[in-house]
Amino acid sequence: MRKCKIGIVGFGTVGSGIYKILSSEVDSHPILKEIEIAKIAVKDLNKKRDIELDNNLLTDDPFKLINDPSIDVIVEVMGGVDLAKDIILQSLKLGKSVVTANKAVIARYGEEIYKTASKERVYILSEAAVCGGIPIIEPLKRSLKSNCIKRMVGIINGTTNFILSKMTNEKADYKETLKLAQSLGYAEFDPTADVEGHDAADKISILSELAFGGKIKREEIHFEGISKINLKDIEYANKLGFEIKLLALSERGQINSNDSLALNIWVGPSLIPKSHPLSTVKGVNNALLIEADPLGEIMLYGPGAGSGPTAASVVSDILNLHAAKEKNNNSVDPLLSFDFWRNCHITSSSQINKKNYLRIICLDSPGVIGKIGDIFGKNNVSIESIVQLDASEDKAEIVVITHEVNNGDFERSKDEINSLNEVKIIASQLSCI
Ligand SMILES: NC(=O)C1=CN([C@@H]2O[C@H](COP(=O)(O)OP(=O)(O)OC[C@H]3O[C@@H](n4cnc5c(N)ncnc54)[C@H](OP(=O)(O)O)[C@@H]3O)[C@@H](O)[C@H]2O)C=CC1
Ligand SMILES: N[C@@H](CC=O)C(=O)O
Ligand code: NA
Questions:
Q1: pLDDT at position 330, please?
Q2: SS3 of residue 225 by DSSP
Q3: What are the φ/ψ torsions at residue 277 (nearest 5 degrees)?
Q4: I need a surface site. Which of 96, 170, 244, 288 has the fewest CB within 10 A?
């Protein structure tokens, strides 16, 4: 088999993990030996690195790699949006296949990127972009293709699961734990992307496009992060038999008169029963539960971030596209590439149905629970449980868990509850599954 020469853009957590795999003597498929690193682009040529590199391998100009005719594949593991998009598109236009771990770019410019790759008869593979080391993108494109996907729900950000697990198990401090996640290489360059839910929204957007076949308007996905979760919510959730996790959900709805498939997609901190399989997913691990017809239910589980697992996904992509190119010469494997096959739209937040958790701080006065219950009842919101969990001096904390109810009805109830004289503040609102 011919050698496959790759140019790697980025030599941080993921890039150095790729180098380690390709320079190790790991007992894996012989095709791994065909992959040769031709050049590596970094930002700072003078940076001190843990891995000793031949200086001739390094450049600070990514376009040198793209314009080098001897390089077959560009591996984009630099991050960011605008420059990364240019690197990917220019590489494809010059007939080079691309492997990327960059969810921010694929979630925003996937359509243009997939189309360019198809037009140029090359591939864009991105297994590492969603749930780091877990095979999830290629299974959706290939192994699960004979199914109708109904629903996907999961934990798809490693940093936030790491933080929430430590807050739950060790009552760890939020800020300190975020710093630890950064030092372990889990968090994005700007960790706001992780803790405010942007990263999970990018990932569920990519997964939804692959599973349901239509372009998703990323900016329409409703998302929230974990930065407002405090130890009290975690403690109360635990008392009531739940864990708090940052969940991403994408669910098939009806096809409308314009032949567009409705999708309910959101990301948010959520209560999940301790008996639910997702509640066992701890630390940097991710998991995605997929319900499909006729398959039934499967859960894909494993490390969602970190150098080795993420790099392993990147290297597997390189192997897959090298093998496909060698085998098919100039023809393109239609399942390894990706094209949309239908229209989809996101259901507006006021139309979706959800279970909710609400923590209300109010005066500890007689009848307040009754008043809150009445407001929910009047607005068609059915309550699963309502309890007073903490009372000190004249203050009480009331926790409400609803059944699955219309979001518009729920938001209306919240406004009315907020205006009760006894209510000081609605301290937190979370989803439940
Ligand atoms: N870390 C993880 O666990 C995971 C990361 N990803 C994704 O992988 C990508 C890379 O992440 P990660 O490895 O953590 O990031 P790092 O910040 O660790 O590394 C980024 C690398 O890109 C290089 N770089 C930055 N700007 C430029 C530039 N203008 N030209 C050339 N090189 C540049 C940096 O150079 P220098 O070294 O000189 O600073 C660095 O080597 C991101 O898209 C991320 O979302 C996906 C899944 C998991
Ligand atoms: N920052 C991301 C890395 C992988 O995509 C995460 O924490 O999941
Ligand atoms: Na993956």
A1: 72
A2: coil
A3: -60, -30
A4: 170
Mapped onto helix, strand or coil, the DSSP state of residue 298 is strand
Ligand 2: distance of its center to the CA of 424 in Å? 37
Ligand 2 in reach of 132 Cβ (< 6 A): yes
423 in ligand 1 pocket by Cβ < 6 Å? no
Higher confidence at residue 326 or residue 201?
A: 201
Closest CA to 97 of 179, 5, 31, 219: 5
Domains with residue ranges and CATH for the chain: 4-136+307-340 (3.40.50.720), 141-305 (3.30.360.10), 350-432 (3.30.70.260)
Binding site per annotation, positions for L-homoserine: 188
Cross-strand bridge partners of residue 331? none
Above pLDDT 90, what percent of the chain?
A: 91
E strand segments, 347-415: 353-363, 383-392, 395-402, 405-406
Instruction: Return the bridge partners of 1, or none.
Output: none
Calpha distance 245→282 (Å, rounded): 9
> Mean per-residue pLDDT for 289-303?
98
Which tokens belong to 401?
């868990």
Among 9, 14, 199, say which to mutate for ligand 1: greatest number of ligand atoms within 8 Å of CB. 14
Q: Which residues are bridge partners to 6 per DSSP?
A: 37, 73
Instruction: State the maximum Cα–Cα separation within the chain, in Å, rounded to a whole number.
Output: 80
Give dist(CA 139, CA 295) in Å, integer. Answer: 13
Calpha distance 94→98 (Å, rounded): 11
Tell the residue nearest (CA) to atom 3 of ligand 2: 305
- Distance, CA of 111 to CA of 90 (rounded, Å): 15
Q: Whose Cα sits closest to atom 4 in ligand 2?
A: 305
Instruction: Determine the Cα–Cα distance for residues 322 and 71; give it in Å rounded to an integer.
Output: 12
Ligand 2 contacts CB of residue 250 (under 6 A): no
- The answer, yes or no, to whether the previous bond of 294 is cis (omega within 30 of 0) is yes
From the CB of 154, is ligand 1 less than 6 Å away?
A: no
| 372 in Cβ contact with 420 (< 8 Å) | yes
Place 37 in a pLDDT band, splitting at 50, 70 and 90: very high
What element of type H or E holds 376?
Answer: helix 368-378
Of the listed ligands, the closest to the CA of 188 is 2
344 strand-pairing partners: 261
The answer to whether ipTM exceeds 0.90 is yes
Q: Would you state the pLDDT for residue 27? A: 82
